[in-house]
Amino acid sequence: MKTIVLLHGFPLDAGMWEPQRDALENAGFHVITPTMPFFGPPPLAVGRNAADYPLLQAPALEVSSMESWARKVNEIIVHEAGGKAIVAGLSMGGYVLMALLRAHPEAVRAAIFLDTKAAEDSPEPRVGRLKMIEDVKAHGTAGVIQTMLPKLLTPQADEGVRKTLRTIMARQRPEAVCGAQWAMAHRRDQTDLLPSLEIPTLFIAGAADALTTPTMMAQMAEQARGKFVEIPRAGHQSNLEQPDAVNAALLAFVTGI
Ligand code: MLT
Description:
Layout lengths: L2 E5 L10 H9 L3 E3 L21 H4 L8 H15 L4 E6 L1 H12 L4 E7 L8 H17 L2 H11 L6 H12 L3 H12 L15 E6 L7 H11 L2 E5 L6 H4 L1 H12 L3
Parallel strand pairs: 1-2, 1-3, 3-4, 4-5, 5-6
The structure holds D-malate.
């Protein structure tokens, strides 16, 4: 059975892949959806005392990096997929996939990039990320949901999708948000990686994605000599806003590998 690993975006967890998990499993794939460290619903014991929140107590944001997360994904592929898998990443998940491709190219049979970019941050967004860390430390994560939601969906997205996204964002802990922003602010530029890829690649972009535009992603596809699919009526979170169209693109690609 072929394995496909789906890497989630920010500030979310594996729950964002539910529509794709079902479609891919129904098509006979072994689907793995890792949640990055500190993301996801907190275990029940966590939150009872300050010792459970190491990232809030110490300047330990450095434990989060695209490279350390890529190492974990590689371990999962080694232990659960015999060392090789198709890997897909949306936005932040795409950054992790690029770090994985650089460190462990042998682990990736084919790569799927959704609504992501290869370039590192310019100074302005980097400062915005560091500001979000300070805001979250001072006021918690409520502001993150308000800031992020309009960036992830089109204004036409239906209330069910909004609710799903809000629910997933609301369960992320401050240390996950802060660690990821730190890691993304310090991630390396990966533009030179794309032309070096020797595997099948697919690039998917929401037609109305303002964060990682279809133009940017079509250019990435060209650099990687990959396939490009634009998803109509979708913003940045294309997999949730138009799951059927994204599933069709994924299935068309992965069944041919
Ligand atoms: C995401 O959707 O994962 C974020 O937009 C990534 C980022 O902040 O660069």
